[in-house]
Amino acid sequence: MTMAGNLRKVTGLGGVGGLRRVARLARRRPRVDLSHPARSPLGSSVVNCVTYRDGVRAPRGGDLVDTVERVRKHGHGFVWLGLHEPTNDEFAGIAELFDLHPLAVEDAVEAHQRPKVERYGETLFAVFKTVCYVEHEELTATSEVVNTGEIMVFVGRDFVITVRHGRHGSLGPLREELESDTTQLAKGPSAVLHAIADHVVDDYLNVIDSVQEDIDKVETEVFAANGARADPGRIYQLKRELLELKRAVVPLGRPLLDLADRPVRVVDPEIQAYFRDVSDHLLRATEQIAAFDELLNSILQAHLAQVTVAQNEDMRKITAWAAVIAVPTMVCGVYGMNFDHMPELHWRFGYPLVVGVISVACWVLYRGFRRNGWL
After folding, report:
1. Containing H/E element for 276?
2. Quick one: pLDDT at residue 352?
3. CB proximity list for 250: less than 8 A, separation 6 or greater
4. What pLDDT sits at residue 100?
5. Which runs of E-coded beta strand occur in 109-224?
6. Rounded to the nearest 5 degrees, what angle is found at the Cα of 109, between the Cα atoms of 121 and 58?
7. pLDDT computed for residue 205 by the predictor
8. Going by C-beta distance under 8 Å and a sequence separation of 6 or more, which residues neighbour residue 98?
9. Is the pLDDT of residue 340 over 70?
């Protein structure tokens, strides 16, 4: 049985009629930008569907199937279809219409993928991890600092399909920015892929700048006068959040280099130079994350060293006072023995002499410890 037949069997949406039903369902939902939660109806998976010819948005007419047929008939332009967290049923008809590979479709629907770029015939499938900085008044041991999402991009000769997971990383502002640069948008679907990659990497740099402020605050507190009392849980929390950021940023390095250096049919040769610029920005982000990780390790080691020094100081004080107390304890212990023949036992000035000797000895010990910094 063919791939299309399998999809018909599973989804019951086979044929143009089924695809038209999917398109009509998408058309009935308002096309809104999910970056505006107040105007975003929950459950609306199709965010927008736009046709571009020579870098200019074409008037909307007909359903998705008609739009794709017109683009393929004229042989120029492309369709940009944006979705947000679609279900298997919602995506099945779209996958059949654009002949998307089942493995890529599964990754796009299920999400939780590593950043990557894969080729399936004439279609390029890219996965980007999106990140956003979670604002917080005070960093605690349980504060969320970095929140991640995903953007999957299908790029073909005449289409771009973006599938977004998460409540951040909206592509609405990016779409408006691209539409204002018709020269770049006229280069085809690969221009959209570059714009998304550049947008994602720019967000990485913005989040890194915000994380650096948290690290600077923790560093200042650790090296303050009472740094030994700083909460190490906050340092561990920053390291955990930095690890999540690292998982989003570092794996994207190789895919961007491949897009910049290896020829791909659906990527315009002029766009490849732009991918090199994005790769350079990603390298900067990767280096900063590595530096932050080393810095947090140093801060943690410094904090542990301060705790050890504080404990040593406490032990020295305890030891010094124990030595001072040992003198009267020893003398009183000697004279507390029940013997008749002891030195100066029946002497009238015996008690004042013993008290004086104890006082002088304790004072000498106290002065010595004080001079050496133990007290």
Report:
1. helix 269-335
2. 77
3. 286, 289
4. 92
5. 116-120, 123-133, 146-155, 159-165
6. 70
7. 93
8. 68, 123, 154, 156, 159, 161
9. no
**Who contacts 141 (Cβ-Cβ below 8 Å, separation ≥6)?**
231, 233, 234, 236, 237
Instruction: Determine the Cα–Cα distance for residues 111 and 131; give it in Å rounded to an integer.
Output: 15
Tell me, yes or no, if the pTM score tops 0.70.
yes
Contact 48, 31 (CB under 8 A): yes
Helix (H, G, I), strand (E, B) or coil at 149: strand
CA 8/CA 22 separation, integer angstroms: 13
> Which residue type does 59 have?
P
Average pLDDT of the chain? Answer: 79
Alpha-carbon distances, residue 230 vs 139, 218, 304, 310, 334 (angstroms) = 12, 8, 10, 12, 47
> What are the phi and psi torsion angles at 49 (to 5°)?
-145, 110
Q: pLDDT, tens digit, for every residue of 201-224? A: 999 999 999 999 988 888 888 887
Give bridge partners of residue 165 from the DSSP assignment: 150
CB burial readout 227-246, b (16+ within 10 A) else e: bbebeeebbebbeebbebbb
Q: Which tokens is 323 given?
A: 């030595």
- Greatest mean pLDDT among 70-74, 176-180, 356-360: 176-180
pLDDT per position as a tens digit, 123-160:
999 999 999 998 887 787 788 888 899 999 999 988 99
Do 97 and 21 meet the contact criterion of CB atoms below 8 Å apart? Answer: no
Would strands 146-155 and 123-133 be described as parallel, antiparallel, or unpaired?
antiparallel
Confidence bin at 38 (pLDDT 50/70/90):
very low
3-state SS of the chain: helix, strand, coil percent to 5? 60, 15, 25
Which element (helix H / strand E) includes 342?
Answer: none
pLDDT at 290 over 80: yes
CA distance 126 to 349: 97
Flag whether pLDDT at 27 surpasses 60.
no
Bridge partner list, 51: 79
H/E segment holding residue 81: strand 78-84
